[in-house]
Amino acid sequence: MSEAMSSELLKIANVNKRFGGLQALTSVDLVVKKGEIVGLIGPNGAGKTTCFNVITGLYTADSGNFFFNGQTYNPINVEQVLKAGIARTFQNIRLFKEMSALENVMVGRHVRTNTGFFGAILKTNSTIQEEHQIKQRAYELLDYVGISEELALQKAKNLSYGDQRRLEIARALATDPLLLALDEPAAGMNQTEKNSLNNLLKKIQQDGTSILMIEHDVRLVMGLCDQICVLDYGQVIASGLPDQVRQNPAVIKAYLGYQKEKA
User: Fold this and answer.
1) Residue 256: what pLDDT?
2) Which of 65, 74, 166, 178 could disulfide-link to 145, CB 3.0 to 4.6 Å?
3) What pLDDT was estimated at residue 120?
4) How does strand 227-232 pair with strand 235-240?
5) pLDDT given for residue 262 in this prediction
6) How far apart are alpha carbons 141 and 11 in whole angstroms?
């Protein structure tokens, strides 16, 4: 295996997806290398969320090749995606709102535990010990994302918007992902919250987790990401370093809304 291939964590190639008469994705290629933050951007309706949903098992691609961590990857459902090592958040926050912040993170952690059905029913010593470890890890992750211990027992619905966003990231991190897929993590945040998010994502990267993110805040993306992929009408129109993408005429045209040149 070449050095370039060994550095690739996620690679999708020639991915296509159609919904009835709408071609949502056309021959999409995307690479996330180990240790990178990669931004997936584009105008509204560009196909970003469809691409995300295909990668994370919510949609099934019509065709294409998927590779993750050196192996063929088949994202046919969410369970397979989690097992492979990919965790995601959503543009619209999806927390268990009546559960505490702590319980939300513990739910995420349970996908990496060994307790079986009978162990949970009988409350064996190993089950009790594992449950204690799950709770301890959940507290650690809440602290990691900046949610204080006194808020840990608050219902998720009572947390501030920014804390709910951070809680969703903590729950995703509880699955020990190799790749964290974030769908518009800064949506609805004020500038102070965005600055805090920026610092958190850099810390996650430094601690060894790669990140793929959709984000409409282009300034945030340009300052944070190592590589950027730009979609427009379901096709990749540019990819590369932030400065390269920023100056690409096709990207400028797509974002400024100029009429496409006729073929």
Assistant:
1) 62
2) 166
3) 45
4) antiparallel
5) 35
6) 28
0.85 surpassed by pTM? yes
SS3 content of the chain, % helix, strand, coil (to 5): 45, 25, 35
- The answer to whether 167 and 134 are in contact (CB under 8 A) is no
**SS3 assignment, position 138:** helix
Cα–Cα distance for residue pair 46/42, rounded to 1 Å = 6
Residue 259 has pLDDT above 80, yes or no: no
Query: Which tokens belong to 122?
Result: 């009988």
Instruction: Tell me which amino acid residue 4 is.
Output: A
- Could you report the per-residue pLDDT of 90-148, keeping only the tens digit for each? 888 889 899 999 999 998 887 666 654 444 444 666 667 778 888 999 999 999 999 99
- If phi > 0 it is left, if psi is from -120 to 50 it is alpha, else beta; for residue 64 that is left
Burial label for 187, CB within 10 Å (0-12, 13-18, 19+), is: middle
Query: Who has greater pLDDT, 177 or 78?
Result: 177
Label the pairing between strands 22-33 and 71-72.
Answer: unpaired
Cα–chain center distance at 2: 27
Phi, psi of 100 (to 5 degrees): -70, 165
- Angle at CA of residue 149, ends 196 and 87, nearest 5°: 55
Question: Can you tell me whether residue 227 is helix, strand or coil?
Answer: strand
Higher per-residue pLDDT: 211 or 117: 211
Query: From the CA atom positions of the chain, what is the Rg in Å?
Result: 19
